[in-house]
Give the backbone structure.
Amino acid sequence: MKTSRDERLARFPQYWDEPRETMSRKDRERVIVDRMQAQLAYAYDSLPFYRSLYDRFGFKPSDVQSLEDFTAKVPIVTKQMLRDDQAIHPPFGSYSNTPADDVARIFGSSGTTGVPTLYAISKVDWARATEAQAMAIWAMGVRPQDTVHFVFPFGMFVGGWAIMLGVERVGATVFPVGAADSRRQIDLVGQLKPTVIAGTPSYVLHLAEVARTMGVDLAVSGVHTLIVGGEPGGTVPGMMAAMRAGWGQHVIICDTGNTSECFPTQMNSSCDRGTGVHIYEDEVFLEIVNPQNHNQRLADGEFGATVYTTLWRQSQPMIRFFAGDRARLVHERCSCGRTYPRLPEGMVGRLDDMLLIRGANVYPSSIESVLRQVPGVGAEYRVVVEREGALDEMSLEVEPEDDSLMQPHAEGARQKLVHAIVEEVRRHVGLRVEVRLVPTGTHEKMLFKARRVVDKRPKTSPV
């Protein structure tokens, strides 16, 4: 018997753009190479930033005749290079030549100096991004009868706006609440009965915790899909398990891209089959490269660093932008029928977040995945890194789900939870760590762009 979800989807075509989404790998790669050559020529001829970069490396666009040439010969672009260029050529840098009257939207992302990197998106690029986003939103199973409740913190950050772009295009109802009081968000879920929630993984998980304290069962709220993005880890198994524990085991969890430099053009998102994150590589091409050699592309299934190229965007195009996320790529056909390659685990973390603990590489997302699967662990925790002698040491400060565990009479229950955490971290991460339970509310809630590593190591002085 068909489920209600099957019946809902059966009323519409399976694909937004079937010829494109089911194209053979060989045919798609021809499209990609053609677009690479066109973008490289445009950037070299029209954008001083790229001409200067390529001349410095002795590179010419005509050097690229294949995907292999592209990775091996084209230098990367980093966010710091973009920031530096915008400081010299404000406001949008010399990698933009879009006339002011052709700019549809301006967005930005935060920088370490507090000065945002600005992105100007032309009307033509905005229109193309609309179709690409719609294709991704359709793959997630969102249809015109859905209502999408947005809990992203709308502002300069483009992520929530980009997803909204696709939701509007497929004809679904948009409810753009933004960063409202969390209890108010839960009240609105009960009042409006949305079918889709869109937000960062941290905030979606936080809402589930708030609902529990309010006595609200989100599993019967009518929400069938969670669209998460804005930070890595949305499809890490532990995080998915934790979100389903709060929102219901039936919910579809779809992760979407998290690199502001390439948004709003859709570059990756999950479909509704739970097989990982699809890479829309004929829109934004993704390479997984050796973190120590950015001109060496890794084989399918190997973990490496992400590098993106916008193939169609002409307002501030990104050509081999080094995003620095850790992921692996496979080209196996998805059960949904789409032939795009996939990231089976999505983005599992940022390479610059990696911790070297007693000779082992540890990613904060791995710790989070473990903690989310230990019964009794609350939403907040901190990974504390300290240096003892020549070695870095890691410990965990964890808030329990039930604060009564912090009472004197609950010593046995506390020890049991601590032991469970220690053993699960040892089993999955390979380290034995000290675990301290702390009262609920000890740590600030990490709702957007969560960063839960507390680095207490002494800072080295610049040479």
Summary: The chain has a mean pLDDT of 88. The longest helix spans residues 25-46. The chain has two domains: 4-25+121-350, 354-455.
